[in-house]
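Service request form, structural biology core

Requester: graduate student, group of Dr. S.
Request type: structure prediction, single chain
Budget code: on file
Notes: please return the result as structure tokens.

Sequence provided:
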Amino acid sequence: MKTLKEATSVAGSLGSPSKMPGSSYGISAEKCITGSKLAQVPGSTCHGCYALKGNYIYRDVKKSHAKRLDGISNNRWVPAMVMMLKAAHSPKRKQPLPPFHRWHDSGDIQSKEHLAKIAEVAKQTPELKHWIPTRELQILMEFIKEGGEIPDNLTVRVSATMVDGPATKAWPTVSHVHQHEAPKGEVCPAPLQDNFCGACRKCWDKSVPSVSYHKH
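Core staff response, request fulfilled:
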């Protein structure tokens, strides 16, 4: 991989959401394996998914999501992602992004191979903190069972299936969605901060076992 233009042609572009620190990377929520089923279930954490409406339905956004999805199978995807992340967060940049990256502000893990590539990108960018929310517990557990490793700088949070429902006990870092009373653990402060993360970085912090988000 020689240039950022080449890297972007392989993996698609990074995002930099205003609500969160750092960079992000998303694919279509229509391609979620478990989430697309849960989206049809009233009361689930995927029902009424924000990534299936609003700006996410615009043609340019869908085109970008499709580009990123296609890129995952490219054998140059890992070096392309590493190059883009290092460039976006480089201290040599006039306005470098904070050292935090969120995987899948839209979409989810597609396979064990996809998760392995994400883990390798995190491993090759130790200067960054990575966070990925997922509902693909089976893929995650099979990945671990087959010898896959999650780097120290990658926090995988398995999302609860139902609003106000419990999260899995099979994985140490999880997330919830609450509509009424928040469960024990950390609560996302964004609703009290004009929907910005502010100084909070709990989602990226492996020492925080549970984070709950207010249903919106």
